Amino acid sequence: MAKNDQTTSPPAEGGSGKSRMKLIILLAVAFLVAVGLSVGGTWFFLSRNAKPAESAPAEADAHPGKKEALYEVLAPSFVVNFNQGGRQRYLQVSVALMGRDQAQLDALKEQMPLVRNQFVMLFSSQNFDSLVTPVGKEMLRQQATASIQALAKKATGQLAVEQVLFTNFVLQ
């Protein structure tokens, strides 16, 4: 009789082990269903919003004379120093060139040492006090644009750069 009691105990523990396994499997399936619903809902809402974007090329064809803007980032950033009243000051500028024709930008890339020299000379000739104001920064940007356009016209014979953009401007 004692042996019968001992043999019936282990299957009872095995039964609770099976119920735990069923619970784990049920939780895993519920988790996968929740992830699937989340991914499906996200895909549904994003694909619904993407339909108006397909009509964007039709709007681009409405202005056939205007090409898409292309950007050429000049790396590394330009760093120049100023001696302001006996105190050393620094300017760090990250520059991007905006053009409309990739062939013209590629032709300008061949002149990159000349371009970088032009920018360094322009940036280092500035007055630190004028660069602190937003108007001074905009004036510098316009001077840089005019300078690079003249250089591009001389070097390649074409106006390769439409604008010079400052993507980072740090004064210290």
TrEMBL record:
Transmembrane segments: 23-46
Keyword tRNA processing annotated: no
Gene Ontology biological-process annotations: bacterial-type flagellum-dependent swarming motility; chemotaxis
InterPro entries tied to this protein: FliL
Gene Ontology CC: bacterial-type flagellum basal body; plasma membrane
UniProt-annotated location(s): Cell inner membrane; Cell membrane
Pfam families in UniProt: FliL
UniProt topology in membrane: Single-pass membrane protein
Keyword Acyltransferase: no
Family per record: Belongs to the FliL family.
Free-text function comment from the UniProt entry: Controls the rotational direction of flagella during chemotaxis.
NCBIfam families linked to this entry: PRK05696.1
Name this protein carries in UniProt: Flagellar protein FliL
Lineage: Bacteria, Pseudomonadati, Pseudomonadota, Gammaproteobacteria, Pseudomonadales
